[in-house]
Amino acid sequence: MRRYFLEAWRKARAGEPLDPLEQQLAVVIREHPEYHALLEDPDAAVGREFPPEGGQGNPFLHLSLHIAILEQVSTDRPAGVRALYQTLVGRFGSPHEAEHEVMECLAESLWEAQRAGQPPDEKAYLEHIRRLAGTGRSRP
Asked: How far is the first Cα of the chain from the last one, in angstroms, to the nearest whole number?
Protein backbone atom coordinates (compact mmCIF):
# COMPACT_ATOMS: atom_id res chain seq x y z
CA MET A 1 0.00 0.00 0.00
CA ARG A 2 2.88 2.36 0.70
CA ARG A 3 4.03 1.92 -2.89
CA TYR A 4 0.57 2.94 -4.10
CA PHE A 5 0.83 6.18 -2.10
CA LEU A 6 4.31 6.82 -3.44
CA GLU A 7 3.30 6.15 -7.03
CA ALA A 8 0.22 8.36 -6.76
CA TRP A 9 2.36 11.21 -5.46
CA ARG A 10 5.00 10.69 -8.15
CA LYS A 11 2.36 10.71 -10.88
CA ALA A 12 0.69 13.81 -9.43
CA ARG A 13 3.98 15.70 -9.33
CA ALA A 14 4.76 14.61 -12.90
CA GLY A 15 1.32 15.68 -14.13
CA GLU A 16 0.45 12.15 -15.23
CA PRO A 17 -3.14 10.88 -15.32
CA LEU A 18 -4.45 9.63 -11.99
CA ASP A 19 -7.20 7.15 -11.21
CA PRO A 20 -9.90 8.36 -8.76
CA LEU A 21 -8.17 7.00 -5.64
CA GLU A 22 -4.83 8.44 -6.74
CA GLN A 23 -6.56 11.80 -7.20
CA GLN A 24 -7.84 11.66 -3.63
CA LEU A 25 -4.41 10.68 -2.37
CA ALA A 26 -2.75 13.51 -4.27
CA VAL A 27 -5.14 16.06 -2.74
CA VAL A 28 -4.56 14.74 0.78
CA ILE A 29 -0.78 14.56 0.29
CA ARG A 30 -0.68 18.15 -1.03
CA GLU A 31 -2.30 19.22 2.23
CA HIS A 32 0.60 17.63 4.15
CA PRO A 33 3.85 19.26 3.01
CA GLU A 34 5.55 17.83 6.09
CA TYR A 35 5.37 14.41 4.40
CA HIS A 36 6.56 15.43 0.93
CA ALA A 37 10.28 14.75 1.46
CA LEU A 38 9.58 11.25 2.76
CA LEU A 39 7.13 10.47 -0.04
CA GLU A 40 9.65 11.65 -2.61
CA ASP A 41 12.22 9.12 -1.34
CA PRO A 42 10.64 5.72 -2.03
CA ASP A 43 13.59 3.71 -0.72
CA ALA A 44 13.39 5.43 2.66
CA ALA A 45 9.59 5.45 2.82
CA VAL A 46 8.86 1.81 2.05
CA GLY A 47 10.90 0.24 4.83
CA ARG A 48 10.73 2.93 7.48
CA GLU A 49 9.20 2.10 10.81
CA PHE A 50 7.27 4.66 12.84
CA PRO A 51 7.28 3.35 16.42
CA PRO A 52 5.26 5.42 18.91
CA GLU A 53 8.33 5.99 21.04
CA GLY A 54 10.00 7.64 18.03
CA GLY A 55 7.74 10.65 18.47
CA GLN A 56 6.67 10.80 14.83
CA GLY A 57 3.32 9.50 13.70
CA ASN A 58 3.06 7.19 10.73
CA PRO A 59 2.32 9.41 7.71
CA PHE A 60 0.83 6.48 5.79
CA LEU A 61 -1.62 5.82 8.61
CA HIS A 62 -2.44 9.52 8.85
CA LEU A 63 -3.09 9.82 5.12
CA SER A 64 -5.11 6.59 5.15
CA LEU A 65 -7.33 7.93 7.91
CA HIS A 66 -8.02 11.01 5.77
CA ILE A 67 -9.03 8.74 2.89
CA ALA A 68 -11.22 6.64 5.20
CA ILE A 69 -13.04 9.74 6.42
CA LEU A 70 -13.52 11.04 2.87
CA GLU A 71 -14.97 7.66 1.90
CA GLN A 72 -17.32 7.70 4.90
CA VAL A 73 -18.50 11.19 3.99
CA SER A 74 -19.00 10.34 0.31
CA THR A 75 -21.12 7.29 1.15
CA ASP A 76 -22.66 8.72 4.35
CA ARG A 77 -21.68 5.57 6.17
CA PRO A 78 -22.23 5.37 9.01
CA ALA A 79 -25.50 7.14 8.32
CA GLY A 80 -25.33 10.75 9.47
CA VAL A 81 -21.56 11.18 9.24
CA ARG A 82 -21.84 13.44 6.16
CA ALA A 83 -24.03 16.02 7.92
CA LEU A 84 -21.82 15.96 11.01
CA TYR A 85 -18.73 16.43 8.85
CA GLN A 86 -20.33 19.43 7.12
CA THR A 87 -21.09 20.93 10.53
CA LEU A 88 -17.46 20.47 11.51
CA VAL A 89 -16.23 22.02 8.25
CA GLY A 90 -18.25 25.11 9.16
CA ARG A 91 -17.02 25.06 12.73
CA PHE A 92 -13.33 24.58 11.95
CA GLY A 93 -13.27 26.54 8.70
CA SER A 94 -11.88 23.91 6.35
CA PRO A 95 -12.45 20.32 5.26
CA HIS A 96 -8.87 19.46 6.17
CA GLU A 97 -9.25 20.67 9.76
CA ALA A 98 -12.61 18.91 10.06
CA GLU A 99 -10.97 15.68 8.88
CA HIS A 100 -8.29 16.02 11.54
CA GLU A 101 -10.95 16.40 14.21
CA VAL A 102 -12.97 13.41 12.95
CA MET A 103 -9.72 11.47 12.69
CA GLU A 104 -9.37 11.57 16.47
CA CYS A 105 -12.85 10.05 16.79
CA LEU A 106 -12.08 7.39 14.19
CA ALA A 107 -8.73 6.48 15.73
CA GLU A 108 -10.31 6.15 19.16
CA SER A 109 -13.13 4.01 17.77
CA LEU A 110 -10.67 1.71 16.03
CA TRP A 111 -8.47 1.47 19.12
CA GLU A 112 -11.48 0.60 21.31
CA ALA A 113 -12.62 -2.05 18.83
CA GLN A 114 -9.17 -3.60 18.67
CA ARG A 115 -8.86 -3.59 22.44
CA ALA A 116 -12.27 -5.24 22.83
CA GLY A 117 -11.75 -7.66 19.95
CA GLN A 118 -14.99 -6.42 18.41
CA PRO A 119 -16.01 -4.54 15.27
CA PRO A 120 -16.03 -0.75 15.65
CA ASP A 121 -19.11 0.62 17.39
CA GLU A 122 -20.67 2.94 14.80
CA LYS A 123 -23.11 4.43 17.32
CA ALA A 124 -20.32 5.36 19.73
CA TYR A 125 -18.24 6.74 16.85
CA LEU A 126 -21.11 8.95 15.67
CA GLU A 127 -21.82 10.07 19.21
CA HIS A 128 -18.20 11.13 19.59
CA ILE A 129 -18.44 13.17 16.39
CA ARG A 130 -21.79 14.66 17.53
CA ARG A 131 -20.18 15.87 20.75
CA LEU A 132 -17.33 17.36 18.77
CA ALA A 133 -19.80 19.09 16.45
CA GLY A 134 -21.76 20.40 19.42
CA THR A 135 -24.83 18.39 18.49
CA GLY A 136 -24.32 15.56 20.97
CA ARG A 137 -27.27 14.11 22.77
CA SER A 138 -27.08 13.98 26.51
CA ARG A 139 -27.49 10.53 27.95
CA PRO A 140 -29.39 9.76 31.13
From this structure: 44
